[in-house]
């Protein structure tokens, strides 16, 4: 049986408890799924996300840190988001996740709030809260180094560098709604402002080190599926060639060529200077391949990690990244083709603890607000907040983390920013979360995925770009709406289960539910079929929706997109003339989901063993008739 | 009789009391002098400057805000400095000083420390402490705006913009030892880390507004001396032409032409690109004359204020400055000729609350440390900390204010930085305070002034550049050492008295002790002669030295200069081959001062009516035999 570390910050106590019964585990698995389960059981969905009543869950899954399972070096944070007010999970790579498991814990549940800054130290099955007064205010890199240094006497100075640290930067401390949690210095549980939740609890960091081995029920079966999995990954050109060579930013030129590379806050889908911020240019010009090798996630053979070095002023530095989403958000979305400025802002996001997607998109929103004359001049203190000004990226990143000047408004995210300055419609968000790097006017299914994402604007609930653009597992007509609903549901469900394993979504370019179910079976000893695996995902997706319904009345009115995507045809390029025909897809989506006006029916919930959630909805008058 | 506002932050109480008796006032006058008097009476000189036992004094002088007295729009902060451990006064212009007087107070004495952030609101003779939780973390511009906004209902919204605010930025909050106090958004009580003292007391700001009129004993006599003073100012080319036209940075080309413009941390005195950061270029290229008019200090006719605007990326913005010392420290001293980067860093110093001289000089120190291979590479995170890199200025300013990464070391100032990285000798400091913009190897008297400055490296205790370079009141041979001691003493004494009036030192380019004594007499009704005026200054200078002796055993061993200035001949230019021949001047200086080994004798102290200080020194065994 696995173990849960429960940390009550209000009382300053840690307690070890067992994972739920196997029956519950088989329904929720781990990671995202189990996180949602705990949140529904223990947290009032209407709670203020930044209050002590919210909880911050740090979870691994059954596959985390299991040798032989490809790309299982991840972990997941689950909480109610201060950006979206939804249930929210955010995932990250690096080495922290496996280390948490090696230290003896599957999950950490942080509740309450401390009066004074603390950090949690977990070491070979034991845990303690430690004073973090001296760490408060420190950036994520300094925090990591300082923790390693002060714990060196405990673990031995040779081993100190093996301590893995997840922490928040100044942005999280300052309750910036787009603050992330950074682990291993350059890895981010980025989206949804989880860093602000830690900040509200005065939880600066979690440091882990351990020597235990994850449980595996059937070693033989594991070996078999491991070999098979790795074989598929090595045969997939995406996972064996494109990602290792060019990283995620390999997508820049591909997506731009399809005319759906959102440019200047989604005003167009074509960025003429895309090649300046492409994965190819990164690889050719600024990669430090030796350092990148060290950045690779635990046990990963795909190795998409980037580590770069800028040696040409005015923007210099070194660090992890940039990823595809980052060069898009800080680059094309702000009209900036200066790879150096973009990468520099990326470094700062990592150090200060900011989500690069939301940061870039929020800056882009400000740039559009300024271009529309909506922002009083004195607010900007002469900073040239104009499309393409790399300095603005760098300065506004600083300002956001510290809520300095206009940064105080940027810290609230694009939706609240645009609303404050009188143009809410230009915030390119779903459920207040900034949309990522694909303009759905040229990928209809992806548009449906955005609109129905239950953690807000997101490409990781359902990555319809795979079938609609890349052709995995097959190429669909991206401008077609019919039939996309079922695809979106399949992605949402399988990804929800995958996120509960916990493994990297990049394996989904190589294999799908059947292989994942086999992996899960080998490690747990269960016999999970691909269909049961899908069902697990569907259960999770529905449970999350229920959380949101209870939280703020989620439903059809939130399953929408910014006006720009629904009403303004793409002005140029290969997707010219298209809008997202959401109204053609939503009814079909609700139908395949068994939902009514964006809400699950009792029948659907009971089919998923979620009668208790149907009862809760009914009690609050939120169950559809 | 004037009034003192005593604010006890530990108790959260304010109390109004009278100024000391006229007898005491005539000895100490106001501002700096009276500040030192209170500090000696009330504060143990050995106290930790950042402890509640230190006090922070905000003072005007008898001439502050008196209509007709030229350049009387200043105020002065007195405290024990966390940078130098000496008694320290720091002065600032703008409009805050007169407003404090119009609000009914000559002086504010802040003692103790608050548990929670507060600000002090002074309005027409009344005062209260107000919660500043929402202001904590805010930059100085936001703080000013927010205070004005929240007090608008009190003073009326038309008058809210007339509220004058002195405050600290994040640097002060973070106890940065080179943090300043900023008033009127762009004016700094810059040197000595007074901002950190406020930060340690959790005093975010002092806001003032008033409608009272300063006392004037003899209106007729005032009118007479006012006309006379103004006449002299209008006849002086420095105060009537150079300063209004080119600001203080008019000095750049002059000082560089003399080969004493310290370049790359004083490695040479010639900066070939000086004209790029000159007052002329500022005036031609980035001045906003209309805004500069608003920035002029209360009642000043010299109008040296700069307000500039940068519209060319990568460095854009607008704000007050840059001054001569700033373009030097952030420019030549770091080898940077990029006026835009320098000015941008200046804006950030103002907003974040950092002393531009110390900031630039500390960055220059880091650059030299890096060039010497003293700083581990990973400390810099790839930032190109190299002579001339403008980005480094900007980024390191942010990092210093927030103690992020290497900024945590920069925040300690040049002396502690250089010591930490194993090269204390390269810190260009006196008593741990960074030297300003004149290389004394080509101005011997100025070197003596640095060495004997009792607030640490400073050009404002004795500005020997006036006689040694500018020729005011007469041109001295700058390479000569003989006779300079008396000049330095004269400057130190007159400036100490002038700092107690409180007026701007720029009037000293036009008139001297006689006129100042007349001004003081007109306002107070005393009959102060030029000699009495000098004596007041001498008393203050000696009292300050006594404070320092009691604080850390100040004396001859501290009256020195960095090795570079004493032993390394200037390598090039008009001052080539020279070092500072301090040992030739110091004995003469001690002799004219009546000091022995850097400490006043009983005879000298008694001559200055400071028997009580002689007694204190004797009691502690610190009185020279």
TrEMBL record, chains A, B:
<dbReference type="Pfam" id="PF01314">
    <property type="entry name" value="AFOR_C"/>
</dbReference>
<feature type="domain" description="Aldehyde ferredoxin oxidoreductase N-terminal">
    <location>
        <begin position="1"/>
        <end position="212"/>
    </location>
</feature>
<dbReference type="InterPro" id="IPR036503">
    <property type="entry name" value="Ald_Fedxn_OxRdtase_N_sf"/>
</dbReference>
<dbReference type="InterPro" id="IPR001203">
    <property type="entry name" value="OxRdtase_Ald_Fedxn_C"/>
</dbReference>
<dbReference type="InterPro" id="IPR036021">
    <property type="entry name" value="Tungsten_al_ferr_oxy-like_C"/>
</dbReference>
<keyword id="KW-0411">Iron-sulfur</keyword>
<keyword id="KW-0560">Oxidoreductase</keyword>
<dbReference type="GO" id="GO:0051539">
    <property type="term" value="F:4 iron, 4 sulfur cluster binding"/>
</dbReference>
<dbReference type="InterPro" id="IPR013984">
    <property type="entry name" value="Ald_Fedxn_OxRdtase_dom2"/>
</dbReference>
<keyword id="KW-0004">4Fe-4S</keyword>
<dbReference type="InterPro" id="IPR051919">
    <property type="entry name" value="W-dependent_AOR"/>
</dbReference>
<keyword id="KW-0479">Metal-binding</keyword>
<protein>
    <submittedName>
        <fullName>Aldehyde ferredoxin oxidoreductase family protein</fullName>
    </submittedName>
</protein>
<dbReference type="GO" id="GO:0046872">
    <property type="term" value="F:metal ion binding"/>
</dbReference>
<comment type="similarity">
    <text>Belongs to the AOR/FOR family.</text>
</comment>
<dbReference type="GO" id="GO:0016491">
    <property type="term" value="F:oxidoreductase activity"/>
</dbReference>
<dbReference type="Pfam" id="PF02730">
    <property type="entry name" value="AFOR_N"/>
</dbReference>
<dbReference type="InterPro" id="IPR013985">
    <property type="entry name" value="Ald_Fedxn_OxRdtase_dom3"/>
</dbReference>
<dbReference type="InterPro" id="IPR013983">
    <property type="entry name" value="Ald_Fedxn_OxRdtase_N"/>
</dbReference>
<keyword id="KW-0408">Iron</keyword>
